[in-house]
Amino acid sequence: MAAAPDLLKLDAAGFLVNMCMIATFFTVPIWLSKSMEMSDLWKVYVPLSVFGGTAMMFSSRKADAGSPRKVITMAFAALATAFFILSLAKTLWMILIGFSIFFTGFSVLEATLPAAVSKLADPMNKGAIIGVYNLSQFSGTFVGGMMAGWLNGKNGGTVFMVLCVASALAAMLINGAEGVTADAAAPGPKI
């Protein structure tokens, strides 16, 4: 199966996205609670959800118009940028800027990765292929929670530096995928 290496790369990307999600949603609210009441977190999450949903809509259209490779690569680059900012964050504004960039990249990846897996999957094995992708996501959720809990107790910035490096590597992995093409007219499956 020619698409298998690209599917494995997407599985690894799904693992990483969920690992990043759990680690971020564990750590950032703790940081925010030092500057604002927990009951006021909706003031952060509502605007980010609206902005993330808008970014998801536009990026999904761009991915559907051709290969989602560029969209996925740019979203991972956004995650790497967000995590770099968060690893250095000392003020509320730096945390909010980093978290905003993370939320945007995460929202885009949550829409485009499963769609890319579904497009690339062989119709005869689509259920199994999507099942493996889901397993990789849940495994990332487990590892992200474990990593965030362990690293946050020692140095919260370390969590984000690790995620920065992992996201940058994921961007390079997806961008350099052999079977990935940006040409919508190219024959065969593509991401």
CATH superfamily: MFS general substrate transporter like domains
How far apart are the first and last residues' alpha carbons, in Å?
15 Å
Range of helix content: over 70%
Give the CATH class. Answer: Mainly Alpha
Q: What are its keywords?
A:
Growth Hormone, Chain: A
Produce the secondary structure layout:
Elements: H1 4-32, H2 42-65, H3 69-88, H4 92-120, H5 126-154, H6 156-175
Helix pairs in contact: 1-4, 1-5, 1-6, 2-4, 3-4, 3-6, 5-6
Description:
Helix content is 79%, strand content 0%. The chain has six helices and no strands. The chain has helices at residues 4-32, 42-65, 69-88, 92-120, 126-154, 156-175. Helix 1 (4-32) runs antiparallel to helix 6 (156-175). The longest helix is centred in the first third of the chain and has 29 residues, at 4-32.
Kindly summarize this structure in a few lines.
The protein is mainly alpha-helical. It is built from 6 helices and no strands. It has a single domain, classed as Growth Hormone, Chain: A (Up-down Bundle).
